[in-house]
Amino acid sequence: TPEIRPLVAGNWKMNGVRASLDQIKAMSEGVKGPLSAKVETLICPPITLLYVATALCTDSPLAIGAQDCHEKTAGAHTGNVSAEMIADCFGTHVIVGHSERRTDHREEDALIRSKAEAAHDADLVAIVCIGESEEQHKSGQTLDVLKRQLDASVPDDATAEDTVIAYEPVWAIGTGLTPTVQDVEEAHAFMRAELVKRFGDEGARMRILYGGSVKPSNARELLGVSNVDGALIGGASLKADDFLAIYRVY
Ligand code: PEP
């Protein structure tokens, strides 16, 4: 198996005001040091803080990204932000297809794929989120759902450099619940096999993050599972101490 550089990523969702930049500053300092050669870090604050956050991190390995982008480059789309605009503010990554976007904004796989393509066109890394609902989990459909979402929301020309997969069981997001280690291992092994089938070498090297109630107390166990190449962290990414504790698991 190839050497993969894990990614520890934070999604602030609709949380954070200017005062919260103190946390980003603390993270940007905290990730300096030899571990940063081994582990990549990223925070996705609300778009209002993106530009200032990137300015705070110019001398830090902490990358800054956005939580969503529009599929078009510009135009009459009131309230939306393009991938180019994110890149223009020195953002380097964008999350697409988060379950809250899929639910709250009825986003579906084809749109999410277009957003990932827009991200790539703007030279951003797309973090494509997939994951089964509680009902799908309970009725044993997890792997079917993952296959369908991977096939339909990841662009055909995705590479290990420009695309990251985030597996987030919807029922584990913000609930404090996590799948068993066995379930995480099975899901990640399945996604790895699917990615290798479709993308060959690129699929073998593409990072697959786990997301859903990751916190300092369970990070060691979850990040130790094979084919888990990092985490996408919601609640526990708001505080520098928690985020850095998870990073230091590596
Ligand atoms: C998320 O929003 O991607 C997430 C995983 O949230 P939490 O860590 O709070 O469950």
Runs in which pLDDT lies below 50 for 5 or more consecutive residues are none
Estimate the strand proportion. Answer: 15-25%
Q: How many domain modules?
A: 1
Helix fraction by DSSP (H/I, runs of at least 4): 40-55%
- What is the CATH class name? Alpha Beta
CATH H level, superfamily name: Aldolase class I
CATH topology: TIM Barrel
Order of helical and strand elements: EHHEHEHEHHEHHEHHEHEH
How large is the count of helical segments?
A: 12
**Ligand kinds:** phosphoenolpyruvate
- Biggest sheet architecture: 8 strands, parallel, barrel
Strand order of the largest sheet: 1-2-3-4-5-6-7-8
Mean pLDDT: 97
Anisotropy-based shape: globular
EC number: 5.3.1.1
Protein name: Triosephosphate isomerase
Family: Belongs to the triosephosphate isomerase family.
Binding site for substrate: 11-13, 174, 213, 234-235
Task: Give a brief rundown of this model.
The protein is of the alpha/beta class and 250 residues long.
Please outline the helices and strands.
Layout lengths: L6 E5 L9 H10 L4 H4 L1 E5 L2 H10 L6 E4 L16 H6 L4 E4 L2 H6 L4 H13 L3 E6 L3 H5 L3 H12 L9 E5 L13 H19 L1 H5 L1 E5 L4 H8 L6 E4 L6 H8 L3
Parallel strand pairs: 1-2, 1-8, 2-3, 3-4, 4-5, 5-6, 6-7, 7-8
This protein binds phosphoenolpyruvate (PEP).
Phosphoenolpyruvate binds next to strand 8.
Account of the 3D structure:
Helix 1 (21-30) packs parallel to helix 3 (47-56). The chain has 12 helices and 8 strands. The longest helix is centred in the C-terminal third of the chain and has 19 residues, at 181-199. It has an 8-stranded parallel β-barrel with strand order 1-2-3-4-5-6-7-8, surrounded by 5 helices. The protein has helices spanning 21-30, 35-38, 47-56, 83-88, 99-104, 109-121, 134-138, 142-153, 181-199, 201-205, 216-223, 240-247; strands at residues 7-11, 40-44, 63-66, 93-96, 125-130, 163-167, 207-211, 230-233. Helix content is 42%, strand content 15%. The chain starts with 6 loop residues before the first strand and ends with a helix. The model has no long low-confidence stretch (mean pLDDT 97). It has a single domain (7-247), classed as TIM Barrel, CATH 3.20.20. The protein has 250 residues and is of the alpha/beta class. The structure holds phosphoenolpyruvate (PEP). Phosphoenolpyruvate binds next to strand 8. Involved in the gluconeogenesis. Catalyzes stereospecifically the conversion of dihydroxyacetone phosphate (DHAP) to D-glyceraldehyde-3-phosphate (G3P). InterPro entries: Aldolase_TIM (IPR013785), TIM_sf (IPR035990), TrioseP_Isoase_bac/euk (IPR022896), Triosephosphate_isomerase (IPR000652), Triosephosphate_isomerase_AS (IPR020861). Pathway: Carbohydrate metabolism; erythritol degradation; Carbohydrate degradation; glycolysis; D-glyceraldehyde 3-phosphate from glycerone phosphate: step 1/1; Carbohydrate biosynthesis; gluconeogenesis. The active site is at residues 98, 168. This is Triosephosphate isomerase.
